[in-house]
Specification:
The structure is a single chain. This protein is of the alpha/beta class. It folds into two domains: 67 residues, Ribosomal Protein L25, Chain P (Beta Barrel), CATH 2.40.240; 167 residues, Alpha/beta knot (3-Layer(aba) Sandwich), CATH 3.40.1280.10. Helix 2 packs parallel to helix 3 and helix 2 runs parallel beside helix 6.
Amino acid sequence: MHARFYHPAEITVGQCIALSHENKHHAMRTLRLKKGDSITLFNGRGGEFSAHIQVIDNSDVKVLVENFLRQERESPVVIELAQAICTNEKMDWIIQKAVELGVNRIQPISTERSIVQLSNERASKRLIHWEKIIISACEQSGRNHLPQIFPLISLSKWLNQKQLIHTDRETRLMLSPTSKQYLKNIARPVNHDSITLMVGPEGGFSQTEELSILHSEYTSIRLGSRILRTETAGLAIIAAIQTLWGDF
């Protein structure tokens, strides 16, 4: 696979595009690309473009767009990950790997036991940071649609929003080490539009939170007989879903 670069603007065949400062640095310093090398561009709206480098120097990297390819690498399963916020490194890891595994939407959530508490300003900066992680993960994994990530929200507000949405075409799952059910016991969501996964923080959801989540029509499931860390649990269940119902 050729080196891939995200270009957020409109892309057309025959267009000459100057790569962004970050992409220029990556192309020159990290990948050591040269004039004439082939690359791939995508804008997150589906499909990708083949191109080659026309100019590469200290001031510019310009590429000529050659063809549009209707190439998609999306799973047939639409997954939304509602992840309780955790420490920066763990949250970055979860977002990066969730994108690689095929998640379509990510909702960071603050809970009673969340170790990290972000002010509005810090939360806005983290959202920008997470969006960059998503772009990088799409460049690496070959995805041509950018997953959405939403601003940080409290669990109670998130559940209130979900209660306003009709649930007939959505499978809602909450990970809980005390549950008696396993993913293999859940019926294949053939006619459902999406699966929403709720993953708690390092200390897990409080009992009150679990009851609120279950009241919002979520089914609790567990992952084997072991208790997994928050940065492991969500990724494990996503991989299992892709194996059972997706494209693994």
